[in-house]
Amino acid sequence: MTSPVRVGVLGLLIAVLFGMLGLRLWTMQVTEAQAYNERADQNQVRVVFTPAPRGDIFTADGVKIAGTRSALAAIVDLALVGKDERDELAQNLAAFLDDPALPASAIMDLLLGPNQGLQITVAKDLSEDQAVFLMEHRESFPGVNIIPQPIRTYPEGELGAHVIGYIGRPNEQDLERDDVRGTDFVGKAGVEKTYDALIRGTEGVIEYRVDARRKVLSLQGEEQPTAGGSLILTIDAGVQAQLQESLRLGLVQARRLEMDERKGVLKDKSIPRLLVEALEAERTEAAEEAAKVAEAAAEGDGADEAPLPPVQPIEVDPAKALGSLYPGLPIDENGVCVPVQRVSILLGGTASLSGREPRVARLISIDEVGGNLTATVTIEGETFTVKDNQSFAGTLQVLAVAEDELIVYHKDKWCPVRTIGVVMNPNDGSIIAM
User: Fold this and answer.
1) For residue 387, is it within any domain?
2) DSSP state of 308
3) DSSP state letters, 27-55
């Protein structure tokens, strides 16, 4: 190939390469310009999610027992804070918040924690002045944003607390839901948990425009959160309050009677002292018995004598030793009264009875005798035939005999019988207190 031809081929290749480069530049600047602009805009926007107020919870008579009030919270978006800025930010936040429970070291632990790239809450329920100060001094508090954060309130205090339940941070099971993130609050018990999806609401979004160093330049847009739905329970506030007050006063009265009776029985003696005295009495009785055996052997005619029985270790049964204090009560090995529950035994079934030594009761049959239902029950091999309100097995009392069920409880003067009860509306059967 001659030199002119080589030069021509080389020039053609160079022309083709420049043509391809020009075509690519034209494509990027004209055809794909919109896509690149959108991608650049996305890279310059930081999104902050704002929690939604949970729905209110009302009783059947319109009393609000769980609500939400608006508050301001300071969060740190870790994606907007450089590693070299975190120490200074922790010092500034600690000085600003002036909270002994949240020193700079604790804030630093949060900033260096495992939640890198997330938003962490460093202060709740800020005043408006505090929020304005943080916003006006962004250069001293990089990555700090102020968001509205609803706080759960309970206007009626503990009324229906066991029904309402509570909220908290999600666990691993909660995080399996598509609509739950680690920074959310979800229902953990009661109706807060059962109807969580209904009363959570929809979170809002705040978009900030940031520069290449992820510094916030301006607020680009905001979408307000949507509050969750409200619940109306069948519970009546007045009946529920009366029930809870009755339970409280009943417990106080029971404890007062317990202490009065114990004072009369115990006098100057304590439970350990009674156990020591019982042990001494057992030893004295054993020594007297041994002396009688030795005396009988000495009075013999010298014939071959039967060997003396081996010495048995001396033990004290707390139930026997503390009989004056705990007549027939379920107590543990230390003589401490064990709270018991009402026990329901189905026909043909079994149930465990609480006490120092757990026992199993089996309901064998239920028969009608003289117009009244009687139940045949076995406890540890011993059989009892019982009817309503009858005492049996030393510590048990029959509460009711039904066609397919026996309900018993311990005759316990000092340990409260723990039961779960409800108050029902006689018209429609709805629960109005529990």
Assistant:
1) yes
2) P
3) IIIIISHHHHHHHHHHHTEEEEEEPPPPP
Q: Between helices 86-97 and 128-136, what is the axis angle to 10°?
A: 150
How far apart CA 94 and CA 104 sit, in angstroms, is 5
Query: Is the pLDDT at 328 greater than 50, yes or no?
Result: no
Phi-psi region of 230 (alpha: psi -120 to 50; beta: other; left: phi over 0): beta
Which range is most confident: 41-45, 112-116, 170-174? 170-174
Asked if residue 248 is part of any domain, the answer here is: no
First to last CA, the chain: 103
* pLDDT above 70 as % of the chain: 69
**pLDDT of 63 higher than 90:** yes
Query: Which of residues 202, 232, 262 is at a domain's end?
Result: 232
Cβ contact 50:128 at 8 Å: no
Separation CA 261–CA 256 (nearest Å): 9
Alpha helices in 301-408 (DSSP H): 318-321
Domain that holds residue 358: 340-411
pLDDT band at 274 (very low <50, low <70, confident <90, very high): low
**Rounded Cα distance, 158 and 8, in Å:** 94
Q: Could you give the number of structural domains in the chain?
A: 2
Pairing of strands 431-433, 423-424: antiparallel
Q: What is the mean pLDDT of residues 345-354?
A: 82
Length reported for the chain: 434
Residue-level pLDDT at 258: 61
The domain boundary, picked from 232, 249, 269, lies at: 232
More confident position, 362 or 32: 362
Residues 218 and 353 in one domain: no
DSSP conformational letter for 324: T
Domain at 378, CATH number: 3.10.600
Average pLDDT (280-305) is 72
* Chain mean pLDDT for the chain: 76
Asked whether residue 228 falls in the same domain as residue 356, the answer is: no
Which contacts (CB < 8 Å, 24+ apart) does range 324-327 have?
A: 324/265, 325/262, 325/265, 325/266, 325/271, 325/274, 326/414, 327/413
* Kind of pairing between the strands at 423-424 and 417-418: unpaired
40 Cβ neighbours under 8 A, 6+ residues apart: none
Q: How far apart are CA 94 and CA 144, in angstroms?
A: 13
